[in-house]
Design brief:
By secondary structure, the chain is an alpha/beta fold. The protein has 13 helices and 19 strands. The chain starts with a strand and ends with a helix.
Length: 446
């Protein structure tokens, strides 16, 4: 048993507290905000998250999934909306359990807080913020009255204080790590769609428009949260949508079918905050064996693969196992093990931006998708579509998914070469025995 201090009661901090309390640790969690069960979610930031197998596995390990079940809405595939209103559904996978779940981030945090508050061994301190590190490299904590807090009982620290992590900044300031923070040129804004619309419920809706897109995820109460991803500056950008008429004209031209479903569209658009998106890469996550960064604090990513929280939850499960295996150096081993995977999902999340906003519309992409599913049927466990490796196969590391995904993409590109007239092959034209030999030669068994 040890005394663990956690900075940040977001999804990762709370889940780690639950996992460690099950092992008998005494856990102190310090959160700069108030108790989420008492206040409402941040206005205009209702973010709902796609939860997939890596996240589910970690929640199961903490025995907390039952407390969330009524808030999870299955999303069985992508519902694509063309500019003319035509719709097309594409299932995410082909196995019985190959779908993902939508969950509200604020409700998830509230439920995890509820369970943590009732769990022996966990003490939650709200309105307590970390202000960096002291001379000894330990967190400086302030109570609600801004008084310094002494925490001599804590023997190990984990910083789960999110993408803007104070702890990461303090480590960087001391030259203990290097950090790259790269914002992309697209921002996001959320819009609420109330219950009672005809939108297909069990799907992730996408209105892909090339340089920008709108998506919508279902909530448990029948409503949807839509998110617009659009350039900050430029001819079609947030900068050009400043008043009612420009906002309404843009939506009428680009998203005519969904516009009537968003009440007070222009007012919502103006009132809701515009968020930035980026990738944080951190070279060193641990400071010896007394402090380690985890979740977004170590590796924030863009949301286009729906994996930021899933990755953070997988971090929690793995760190929990390493802390319990009795071997020396769990923090150093955690950082060494997870860094390549965090880098891999950061890259795949950026690549998925292009896929969601543009490629999904292309006939060649759709043919490759059909082919990938067909290869998975013919060579199960050998050829697995990259999306499925990331979302449904928690036994496959992100770095392996990235590596095999690139090999598979090269094969699919070769199989779907258009002819001299630019015509794509049909599925029936594929020389399956020939390509099967090449696939088997290129992809080692998993
Ligand atoms: P956070 O959720 O940021 O929590 C950090 C906590 O630390 C907060 O409670 C904060 O108040 C607290 N804190 C911060 N500073 C201090 C301090 N100095 N002292 C004390 N406490 C502090 N992920 C998915 O898996 N699927 C998705 O579909 C998905 N969609 C997304 C869509 C959008 C638009 C965005 C922005 C993100 C999305 N994500 C998604 C990512 C996901 O939200 C994050 O990866 C996840 O919230 C990370 O959890 P965390 O606990 O590491 O950090």
């Amino acid at each position: 048993m040890s005394n663990l201090g956690i900075i940040g009661a977001g999804p990762a901090g709370l889940l780690l507290a639950l996992l460690r309390a099950r092992r008998g640790d005494q856990v102190q969690v310090f959160e700069r905000r108030g108790d989420p069960r008492r206040g409402s979610a941040e206005a205009g930031r209702s973010i709902n998250l796609a939860l997939a197998s890596r996240g589910l596995r970690a929640l199961r390990a903490a025995d907390v999934l039952d407390a969330l079940n009524d808030q999870l809405v299955p999303m069985r595939g992508r519902q694509l909306h063309a500019p003319d209103g035509a719709q097309q559904f594409a299932a995410y996978g082909q196995g019985e359990h190959e779908y993902i779940w939508s969950v509200s981030r604020s409700l998830l945090t509230q439920r995890l807080t509820d369970v943590a508050a009732a769990t022996p061994g966990i003490t939650l301190h709200f309105n307590h913020r970390c202000d960096g590190l002291d001379e000894a490299g330990l967190p400086v904590l302030k109570d609600p009255q801004n008084k310094l807090l002494s925490t001599p009982m804590v023997s190990r620290w984990v910083a789960t204080d999110g993408a803007g992590s104070q702890v990461r900044q303090a480590l960087r300031a001391r030259g203990l790590t290097q950090v790259s923070e790269e914002f992309i040129e697209h921002d996001y804004k959320e819009l609420d769609i109330p219950p009672g619309t005809a939108l297909r419920r069990e799907a992730l809706h996408i209105w892909p428009r090339g340089g920008f897109m709108l998506i919508a995820l279902p909530n448990a109460d029948g409503s949807f949260t839509a998110t617009l991803f659009l350039a900050r500056e430029g001819s079609t950008s947030f900068a050009t949508l400043r008043d009612d008429s420009s906002i309404l004209a843009f939506f009428a031209a680009e998203f005519a079918d969904v516009t009537p479903l968003i009440p007070g569209l222009a007012q919502q658009f103006i009132a809701h905050p515009q968020g930035r998106l980026g990738t944080v890469l951190t070279t060193t996550w641990n400071s010896g064996e007394h402090l380690v960064l985890l979740g977004d604090a170590a590796h924030a990513i863009v949301p286009f693969h729906g994996q930021g929280m899933n990755c953070a939850f997988e971090d929690c499960r793995i760190l929990d196992e390493l802390l319990s295996d009795g071997l020396p150096g769990p923090y150093a081993r955690f950082a060494a093990l997870r860094k390549p995977d965090a880098d891999a999902i950061a890259q795949m999340a950026l690549e998925n931006h292009a896929e969601m906003s543009d490629s999904v519309r292309s006939p060649r992409f759709q043919l490759q998708r059909q082919l990938a599913l067909e290869w998975e049927k013919r060579l199960p466990g050998r050829f697995i579509p990259r999306y499925s490796m990331v979302m449904f196969h928690d036994e496959i590391c992100y770095s392996v998914a990235l590596h095999r995904g690139h090999i598979q993409q090269q094969l699919l590109d070769q199989m779907t070469q258009p002819d001299a007239q630019g015509v794509l092959p049909a599925l029936d034209d594929i020389n399956w025995p020939l390509w099967q030999e090449r696939v088997l030669a290129s992809l080692a068994p998993l």
